[in-house]
Amino acid sequence: MAAAPTETSHKKQANLPPSLYTIIRDKTTSRGDFLFYSDRIIRLLVEEGLNHLPVVPKTVQTPTGSTYEGVGFEGRICGVSILRAGEAMEAGLREVCRSVRIGKILIQRDEETALPKLFYSKLPEDISSRYVLLLDPMLATGGSAMKAVEVLREHGVPEERIIFINLIAAPEGLQAFCTKFPGLRVITGWIDKGLNEKAYIIPGLGDFGERR
Predict the structure, then answer these.
(1) How far is residue 97's CA from residue 135's CA, in Å, rounded to a whole number?
(2) Residue range 102-129, pLDDT digits in tens
(3) Residue 65 CB coordination number (10 Å)
(4) Can you tell me the mean pLDDT for 138-149?
(5) Which region holds residue 142: left if phi is over 0, alpha if psi is between -120 and 50, else beta?
(6) Which residue, 3, 101, 130, 210, has fewest beta-carbon neighbours within 10 Å?
(7) What pLDDT shows up at residue 112?
(8) Cβ contacts of residue 63 below 8 Å, gap of 6+?
(9) Phi then psi for 129, rounded to 5 degrees?
(10) What is the pLDDT of residue 110?
């Protein structure tokens, strides 16, 4: 059963169908079904993330000759995936946001310090002027996500312009992440029970990247 939905000005558990999560958590689910249903979840989460972007009034003419007073996004967006698992979320973002620019960040543990370390990054040159959808399916301790945000900030992206999109989060990592970066927003599909002694998310769904 899901943790109670959590929503503040910066953190929200999206209201997604539990049946979708039952399918992707099931160890007997085929790779094809895992791909299909996890991609469906990703698209829903991206749509939710877009709902948190600022908009400005926009007037358009309809085919009937009428005027419609609507809205448009205030600024430009881009996606940034945290490799390797976050790369699997890029297709879902592209299906929702046509021609969106996407950057990549590779974070791995430093064997000497045991701390997250940046190994590679490729970001749009104008990323400091964009709203960033940061993509990573699993948030356990939060170490990689926090390091990725530090990289974005070093490239001039304010916390307030970052939306972290995530399929499953452990409450420990979510709390640490939001405490360190109170200005950014988090959209997660599900908040699980917690971490085990090996820092695996429980009940989780296993290794997201390997299952795809």
Answers:
(1) 14
(2) 999 999 877 777 678 899 999 999 999 9
(3) 6
(4) 95
(5) left
(6) 210
(7) 73
(8) none
(9) -100, 5
(10) 74
Read off the pTM.
0.89
CA-CA distance, 137 to 126, in Å (whole number)? 25
How far apart CA 24 and CA 159 sit, in angstroms, is 31
Half-sphere exposure in the Cβ direction for 19 (13 Å, CA): 0
Q: What residue type is 152 in one-letter code? A: L
Long-range contacts of 112-120 (CB under 8 A, 24+ apart): 115/143, 116/143, 116/144, 116/146, 116/147, 117/147, 118/147, 118/151, 120/83
How far apart CA 16 and CA 21 sit, in angstroms, is 9
Q: What angle do CA 117, 89, 98 make, to 5 degrees?
A: 120
Cβ neighbours of residue 149 closer than 8 Å, sequence gap 6 or more: 134, 159, 162, 164, 180, 181, 184
- Cα 193 from Cα 158, distance rounded (Å): 31
| 201 contacts: CB under 8 Å, gap ≥ 6 | 138, 140, 168, 169, 170, 192, 194, 195
Structure-block tokens of residue 113 = 């310090």
Comparing 84 with 192, the larger pLDDT belongs to 192
pLDDT at 3: 36
User: Cβ of 99: how many Cβ atoms within 10 Å?
Assistant: 5
Max Cα–Cα distance, the chain, nearest Å: 67
